[in-house]
Write a structure and sequence with these properties.
- 41% of the residues lie in helices and 15% in strands.
- It has 331 residues and is of the alpha/beta class.
- The protein folds into two domains: 10-239, TIM Barrel (Alpha-Beta Barrel), CATH 3.20.20.70; 248-326.
- Strands 3-5-6-7-8-9-10-1-2-4 form a ten-stranded parallel sheet.
- Strand 8, helix 6 and strand 9 form a beta-alpha-beta unit.
- Helix 12 (293-305) packs antiparallel against helix 13.
- The radius of gyration is 20 Å and the shape is globular.
- The two termini are 29 Å apart.
């Protein structure tokens, strides 16, 4: 890749369990532009006879017509991985991603996600068995290690041995979760020691943080965005400088209303629906600025305290009745 190439970047929606499911992906892609594709939240492998069709609903093509997706697999068992990968291929997914980055301790303790990173020999053995027996192209999503940011350098020679389509790197350790700064210095060292295309993932929350990252790594043209995109759904448009004359407040208001309506068709009870929307508002709230910060915080607090559908919808209406401005996510 020409390091001076300033063509439009490829922007990828990150897989976040409980957030970037098919409903969010479809609603977002209908209201905003700039995102090129998404990696779907992981599907855990199970023994072949336990793989139920319901576990694949999120990635079925008929539910993902508005945005290209790449399914993600969480596994440490080669035969179960191969079975699931080829099942996904039969559904039309010619590329899949292997989750070697999930930081959550319950998963890591089972040597899945980032919990597998301290065991390069096991990862090598898995790749050796998996790659010749699947029909899909395979990428991997990794962190720097489980506890130690040097673990990745034991893995790079292994990855270089296999025909991976790309490596998505979140430059934190698993035990860091999302705290602290992304370790861009270590990412730079990875860039110099890999034969694969790298995707940068971490702390891109506005156009400024994107530009700083791209300036530091001019050879990188693929970027994955997760929490920043939920907090600011306009982020893809801002990065690609896609302009619109429509009010951002009104566009966002329509977006969150559609999100609410779509989830209301899926969830059987109001508790699940309100809980899901409150989860989104923990991110949304950071993108608004009011004339009075106290009033804005109070309006958000009403949303989080709502316990019925009527209270929730009234609180959201009250929030938009405030004198608020869209500011996006501060750096």
């Amino acid at each position: 890749m020409d390091p001076m190439d300033k063509s439009q970047p490829t922007l990828i929606m990150a897989p976040l369990q409980g957030y970037t499911d098919r409903t969010f992906r479809q609603v977002h892609s209908r209201h905003f532009s700039g995102i090129d594709l998404a990696v779907a939240p992981f599907i855990s492998t199970m023994s072949q006879h336990r793989l139920k069709p319901s576990r694949l609903k999120d990635i079925l093509p008929e539910f993902n017509r508005d945005l290209k997706i790449i399914p993600q697999i969480l596994s440490n068992n080669a035969q179960d991985f191969i079975f699931l990968a080829n099942t996904l291929y039969d559904l039309g997914h010619t590329e899949i991603n292997w989750n070697l980055g999930c930081p959550h301790s319950k998963i890591a303790k089972k040597k899945r996600g980032s919990g597998l990173l301290p065991f390069p020999e096991e990862i090598d053995a898995l790749l050796k068995e998996i790659i010749p027996n699947i029909n899909n192209r395979l990428s991997v999503k990794v962190r720097l290690g489980r506890k130690d940011n040097r673990e990745i350098f034991n893995l790079l020679p292994i990855f270089n041995h296999y025909p991976l389509s790309e490596i998505i790197v979140h430059p934190r350790t698993g035990t860091q979760m999302y705290t602290g700064m992304a370790d861009q210095d270590t990412f730079g060292r990875i860039l110099e020691n890999t034969e694969h295309r790298l995707v940068y993932n971490g702390d891109i929350v506005n156009r400024n943080t994107f530009e700083l990252t791209r300036h530091k790594f001019p050879r990188i043209n693929h970027f994955m965005i997760g929490r920043g995109l939920i907090a600011d759904p306009f982020l893809g448009e801002d990065i690609k400088q896609i302009t619109s004359q429509e009010s951002r407040i009104l566009r966002f208001k329509d977006f969150q209303a559609r999100l609410f309506n779509e989830y209301s068709e899926l969830f059987s009870g109001p508790g699940h629906l309100i809980g899901r929307m409150k989860g989104f508002w923990t991110f949304f709230g950071s993108s608004f600025k009011g004339d009075s910060e106290i009033h804005t915080r109070k309006a958000l607090k009403k949303i989080f305290k709502s316990s019925s559908l009527e209270q929730y919808t009234d609180s959201v209406d009250h929030f938009f009745d405030q004198d608020i401005l869209w500011q996006g996510t501060p750096a």
